[in-house]
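Q: What would this chain look like folded?
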Amino acid sequence: MSSVRSSMYWTVHLEGGPRRVNHAAVVVGDKIYSFGGYCTGENYRKRRPMDVHVLNTSNFRWSALPLPKQNDPQVNCVPYQRYGHTAVAYGDKIFVWGGRNDEAACNVLFCFDTNILQWSCPSVSGMIPGARDGHSACIINHCMFVFGGFEEEIDRFSQDVHALDLRTMRWTYIITQGEPPSYRDFHSATALGDRMYIFGGRGDLNGPFHSQEEIYCSDIMYLDTKTCRWHRPVTAGDVPIGRRSHSAFVYNGHLFIFGGYNGLYDEHYNDLYRFSAANNEWHLLKPQGKPPSKRRRQSCLVVGDKVFLFGGTSPCYSPNPIAFLGNIEENAVDGLEAKLMDHNDLHILDFAPSLRTLCLLVVIQNHMEETWLPEDIKWEIRAMTTNNSISRPLNNTG
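A: My prediction, written as structure tokens:
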């Protein structure tokens, strides 16, 4: 397998953010909003309001929005804490749909207004999809397209497409042409023009039914939303191995895949691939700098020329179970217990690092003396090296 080394660079690694797995996050303006997710040790049977964390992408600092009180009139419009849900940004509003806690899945639509930092439950009509988690969602031409997932009520994987018109708030079941992607969950759906690209996910040898006989497809497919026809392009290059719980994002017209997990090999990944829709070719990329650890169920968001990656879970091995915060895995390496470590870290991948940024990295990596540097450069170094402590803002100006 070949690889492409480019000027992109892993520039920042900070600890101390929200420790979250299987959360959902979007960009609005210069802020990243992260909703819910899982953290080992927390109670996901009891219903409680979903937490919202906001990342200031200028200074790399997190804020936790105050949770509503029980007597707050807004509390009934706040989604309960969950995982496996989706979030999409439409203007200055964010729509959260699906997901589950340890008791049940949900199909109620919630809207978060980033101007007033409040939730609402918009009235919807049409054919509302069944409650599910592990589905995908993306915005194309004013519509939120939802694909796949695991449906709670009928206890099976899905390969259906639903669309919510965000202008009319009407759900439509999309009748598609051509062979659809196989039944799956924890895949990715990425919008490129009028196309919704589907990659990865966990399927089953028994089609829609969960029998513990997992399959992982490495094909990429797309739905042409103008014709509602599925296409399976013939791809070339460094085709990534099938995986689930990876991240997908778009930069400069290309689709990128990071990380994920393959259950057949019991392998986590921290690789980065670029897919060009123009020639259907994959490239394995080798950014400079230290990459994040191998992981799944993280978030990757693009702001300008930077990708902000945070959260997720990674395998760790230790003879001391008390030393780790995470779930015990069944397998072991050399007699060591395998655990999943939930992350609270933030990584930044810079596609176009400036000379100033590269010079700052030299200072940081070589532990050079900083006292002689100008104050503004010292501030930048502190922002790139000082761990976060989550604050609670009083308003939306922080």
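The chain has two helices and 34 strands.
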